[in-house]
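Progress against Task 2.4 (sequence-to-structure conversion) is shown through the following example record, which the project officer requested during the mid-term review.
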Amino acid sequence: MSSAALSTAKPAADRVWQRYTFAQRMARFMIWFVIVASIVAAGRTVEVIPEFLADAPEQIADLLKRMWPPAVDYYPRGIHEALVETLHIASLGTILAIIMAVPFGLLAARNLTRNRFINFLARLVLVSSRSVNSLVWALLFVGIFGPGALAGTLAIAFRSIGFIGKLLGEAIEEAHKGSIEALQAAGASTGAQIWYGYWPQVKPAFWSIVLLRWDINVRESAVLGLVGAGGIGMVMNAAQDLFQWDRVAMVLVAIFAVVVVAEVVITQIRKRMI
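Structure tokens generated for the chain above:
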């Protein structure tokens, strides 16, 4: 090596190792800047009142004092029937959702439905179902059918179509092609390909999706009554309007117990079926 090269070469000790390039550092800075700016803008929009925040602990303590002890004697005559109705809303709504979601899930799978227009329409229906909250669906059906369990059941069903159909379509798209190609080579019809090729592969995922959605629907159906869609939510709303906080506490305890039991049941069913 020449003396000129030695004189221009930078010593290794003077080199500074950097984890990110300049472009990467700028990108990270912009991301953090957008996050902080969004939080600041959201805080200004929400308009939090400091006096209410300072008074919150005292109000919470007063509310808990009013709710204790829960009105246990109110459960048999005022809560049990509404709780059973809530479970019926969740179960029937899930069944209706399965019936309506399976065709859209099949049409939304790109490897099964080759027509792009039909595939697009199916995905649009699934997105539309998921984009509307269950409470909004409940308000819509209460306006059509009036207050009651029917509105809640339809709200749960239409909300669940997008969830079940989307995950079912993705499970179909991830199915292995070997058995499908063998059925196609044997001249099997599309129905035979679905039943003997796709279904055995997506069966565990399908039942997992259904059980998970039912578990979610139990939770959601408990609050639909707040807008008049039947179930235990109507009981809780009536108790709140009358400032009967001990009954509200009993309703919350009942909802919590049902959610825990549903979680245990779902776990056991999954172990045996999947």
